[in-house]
Design brief:
Layout (H helix, E strand, L loop, with lengths): L4 E3 L5 E3 L3 E2 L6 H14 L3 E3 L7 H13 L9 E6 L6 H15 L6 E4 L30 H13 L6 E4 L3 H10 L6 E5 L7 H10 L2 E5 L25 H10 L3 H11 L3 E2 L6 H8 L8 H8 L24
Parallel strand pairs: 3-4, 4-5, 5-6, 6-7, 7-8, 8-9, 9-10
Antiparallel strand pairs: 1-2
Helix pairs in contact: 1-2, 1-9, 2-3, 7-8
This protein binds NADP nicotinamide-adenine-dinucleotide phosphate.
NADP nicotinamide-adenine-dinucleotide phosphate binds next to helix 9.
């Protein structure tokens, strides 16, 4: 199944649909998921340094390219700079390690993962914590300091497009104004309970594309940090979504994916279940009516993610629209 793309300000095409890989570290499970996804038509894979799975993704992509089943230009890889590698002297080193792990010469889209830089332990990318277990903030490095290093890697051809993740609209606009290479994409929490209306308006104005993370509400999110502060809410069980699934003879996941893509967002639902991987990409053969889109737009707002570990950081702006 071929899915649509949206243009980036670089001229490249961002597939509107791809596979999320957060919390998937098991070698066999991820390889099976990736092969199922690519065979079903997925052409975008979303990863990050912090997911610790870039080497597995690299192996599978290499397997497909080396056997002629895929050309490099047919697959779009998004990855992200960890919050511990924002310092100018760390950026290139980190990106080079990611390129090696991915077995690639370039990454299609590279994002600053989190707006709040923190320090790492000497000689590793493990975050530095104080004696209470709290992250040690890097209060010196600004967004533009990090961006300038990313721009060098863009000009060197190692990163084909640049963007940010979890930035507020204000932070995106500030960076946009200072940047030589303008941000091409922002990746943020976005689903029926958190629709990012203001950020989407700013993105339209600036010509920045938006990728929705947690498009299904990330039902497995709490296991990543059981001691974190996770608001409750499950879009997959929302009564209106259940009703629309019945009406259109689709699954609730297919309704949630269609809603976001019909609004022009790129989506990256994660699944390790082969049946669901195929189900999720089968969301493009129907349209939600205008009336049903409006009804979904009217849902009560609940933010399901937060950056509670970075509260108190000078660049903390989580929840600002
Ligand atoms: P999500 O895609 O909204 O939800 C994934 C969860 O939904 C998994 O537990 C999955 O379970 C389940 N699921 C998938 N398809 C389903 C279906 N058809 N029916 C019912 N359940 C289904 O949440 P997410 O993984 O948090 O977000 C997606 C991706 O966005 C991530 O994987 C990651 O790549 C990215 N992300 C980025 C950030 C950031 O800071 N930039 C933060 C969070 C996520 P199974 O695997 O068992 O199917």
């Amino acid at each position: 199944m071929k899915t649509p793309s949206i243009p980036l300000n670089t001229g490249a095409a961002l597939p509107i649909f791809g596979l999320g890989t957060w919390q998937v570290k098991d070698d066999k499970e991820l390889k099976t998921s990736l092969r199922t996804a690519i065979d079903a038509g997925y052409r975008l894979i979303d990863t990050a340094h912090i997911y610790k799975n870039e080497h597995i993704i690299g192996e599978v992509i290499h397997e497909y390219i080396s056997t002629g089943r895929l050309k490099r230009e047919e697959i779009f890889i998004t990855s992200k700079l960890p919050l511990v590698a924002h310092a100018p002297e760390d950026v290139e080193k980190c990106v080079n390690g990611q390129l090696d792990a991915l077995k690639l010469d370039y990454i299609d889209l590279y994002l600053i993962h989190c707006p709040c830089p923190c320090k790492h332990q000497e000689g590793s990318w493990i975050p530095l914590s104080d004696d209470k277990g709290k992250l040690v903030f890097d209060e010196k490095t600004t967004h533009i300091d990090t961006w300038r290093e990313l721009e060098k890697l863009y000009y060197a051809g190692k990163l084909r497009a640049l963007g940010v993740s979890r930035f507020s609209a204000r932070q995106l606009e500030d960076l946009y104004d200072l940047a030589d290479v303008k941000p091409a994409n922002i990746q943020v929490e976005c689903h029926i309970y958190w629709q990012q209306e203001n950020l989407r308006r700013v993105c339209r104005k600036l010509g920045v594309t938006l990728t929705a993370f947690a498009p299904l509400g990330s039902p497995g999110r709490k296991s990543s940090r059981p001691d974190g502060n996770w608001p409750d809410g499950d879009p997959l069980l929302d009564p209106l979504v259940l009703q629309l699934a019945e009406k259109y003879q689709k699954s609730t996941a297919q309704v949630l994916i269609r809603f976001l893509t019909q609004n022009g967002n790129s989506v990256i639902p994660k699944s390790v279940n082969p049946r669901r991987i195929v189900e999720n990409i089968s969301s493009f053969d129907y349209e939600l009516s205008e009336e049903d889109m409006h009804a979904l737009e009217d849902k009560t707002r609940i933010k399901l993610f937060n950056l509670d570990f970075a509260i108190g950081h000078p660049l903390y702006a989580d929840g600002e629209n």
